Amino acid sequence: DQRDLPKDLRNLFNLLKNMYASPEQWKDMTEEAKEYPAICEALRHLELLHEQLQVYGVDGYVSYEPGVLSNYRYYTGIIFAGYTFGSGEPIVKGGRYDSLLSYFGKNAPAIGFALMADQLLLALERQKIEVFHPKKEEAILYGSGCTEKAIRTAQKMRGEGKSVSLAALPEDEAERQGLFEAFENAKITVLE
What we know:
The structure is a single chain. By secondary structure, this protein is α/β, with parallel strands linked by helices. It has six helices and six strands. It has helices spanning 7-16, 23-32, 37-56, 117-126, 147-159, 173-182; strands at residues 79-82, 92-97, 110-115, 138-142, 164-168, 187-191. α2 packs antiparallel against α3.
């Protein structure tokens, strides 16, 4: 309101304030943005994305928020967040960045994301989804004076293709018993 912006640009900003925009509303945005090729191109890209999501049959799980901005200034295009039941926070966040990699010696566009492990685990717990834990074949439990020997033994066994877990033996007897229970399905070697 404080800027002397053209009416069509003002109207675009008003459309962006909608929390969610449906693909049908993009037509209104595209009409208002006809003088702004970059905006039209971004909207066309979203239309193509939506069409692909329809083909996969997952478009009902996706909502669009055209007014979302990120505090990270390296994003140059779409930003996204993924949610699931059992968590009010995103379990994945990411977006497009076309020039970030140039700071690391490679001038290439990219898209990336971060998986929010704590939120994912919370959602799995709340949804009562069991996570498959592969059987630990072998475990080496070691006392404080045997750390180096335990590591070298585990390296040798891993070199032979074995799956080996290492854990320091606690001093407390109850904790020690809990550790043995954690590895109840494994072949346990104790080094003290």
